[in-house]
Amino acid sequence: MPKPLDGKNALVTGASRGIGRAIAQRLAADGATVAIGYANRPDAADQVAAAITADGGTAFPLPAPLGTHGDAAALWAAYDRRITAHTTRTGVDIIVNNAAIGRSPDLHTITETQFDELFATNVRAPLFIVQQAHRRLHDNGRIINISSGTARLAMPDIMAYGATKGALDTLTLNLAQLLGPRNITVNSLAPGIVDTDTNAAWLRDDPDAQAWASSLAALGRVGRPDDIAGIAAFLASDDARWVTGRTIDATGGALLGV
């Protein structure tokens, strides 16, 4: 039986763990050939690719350290070398800009270097990944930028991180306008608090933190990576062909009464 993403090529950055891993696995389950972008954990990326292969999908690890000049060009050069070993179709159909520095110091302690690193990884890299993908990206393609609920909620302790996600949403809006004539959709997907390895230290083993985080969401629980992956799969599919330039709230209804 045909799958919704049969014959499609996908790149997911930051896919060796957490939300990126869940998205990569879901896109592969839906039929896509998936490049597992990673920065410094080749072992973890290999495990994701192996798990996808064991489930009958197609995936390969792709070294993709971000945050320095030339990072996007290096990523796509590696992609071009590796994609042909896994499919006869070149180019890319789905780009998921997920890799990011996930937190930031507060106003009183953040340094200029930390600020620059945040924007280089969370904003500059996605912009140039799309720029460098332009000749590789097929018509009717999909770009999904992983934003955050912090772009619309005041959270002063991590305000610089939130600012990067607000900037990413602005990129989404403009890229949707620019690429619309090619039937390429561009959307942001904004999770709230999700139970990932990144949040494990303060969330996973602390019942009080779990209760607090759950209380923020109208749906009464903390998000899971597969919650976000399901929405990403929809945005990547033909069913979402008439949705572009939008930021999709995936917070479980966080702070709706505020």
TrEMBL record:
Alphabetized InterPro entries for the sequence = NAD(P)-bd_dom_sf, Sc_DH/Rdtase_CS, SDR_fam
Q: Which residues form a coiled coil?
A: none
Pfam families with a match to the protein in the record: adh_short_C2 (PF13561)
Q: Which keywords accompany this UniProt record?
A: Oxidoreductase
Molecular function in Gene Ontology: oxidoreductase activity
Q: Family membership, please give it.
A: Belongs to the short-chain dehydrogenases/reductases (SDR) family.
Keyword Oxidoreductase part of the UniProt annotation: yes
Name the record gives this protein? NAD(P)-dependent dehydrogenase (Short-subunit alcohol dehydrogenase family)
Superkingdom of the source species: Bacteria
Keyword Oxidoreductase among record annotations: yes
